[in-house]
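Morning!

As promised:
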Amino acid sequence: GENVEQHPSTLSVQEGDSAVIKCTYSDSASNYFPWYKQELGKRPQLIIDIRSNVGEKKDQRIAVTLNKTAKHFSLHITETQPEDSAVYFCAASSATGNQFYFGTGTSLTVIP
Amino acid sequence: NAGVTQTPKFQVLKTGQSMTLQCAQDMNHEYMSWYRQDPGMGLRLIHYSVGAGITDQGEVPNGYNVSRSTTEDFPLRLLSAAPSQTSVYFCASSYSRIGAIGEAFFGQGTRLTVV
């Protein structure tokens, strides 16, 4: 099955700086790559996603890039704010589209 | 529009007891799934369903049963609880079609402790 690896496991940045979280996947047939944000005690919520026919997608301060050849994708958060502090999960869909495989999460702390 | 509703929010079980975690969605999603979340291990898929009457195993299915009699409901049953099943459980639903899946909407989670 798919194997998704996520780095780093923890990340601290100063407010206003950028944060980058990286994920790799193993199944070249995976075609959908969402990113979820989970605040403490809350449910995961989608913040951005990308499909395999697109190389980059932006939504205000958040962007995701996908390199299909290298099988890795990254989340970029610019101008970080304290409310960006949370755990972020990457995921990749199975080739059949029936399963998500999640990374192990990155705990982001934005220091005011 | 309630989205994905999951109950209970908290539960304490004794080893060997059984229970059912309830999950319901009102978005007419065909795809529903159950995950467990453990520290440092992300979200691991337990069971999933691509439609009423169809279920399949995920990464960590042992000790759990599911059924899908309607599009809306997808209960998760713990047959004989063990301390290793102490975890936070999330139900999720997605729009899906063959070869493609959309955003997963998660329930609020169930924190289960087995003593």
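Chain A has a mean pLDDT of 93.

Hope this helps with the figure draft.
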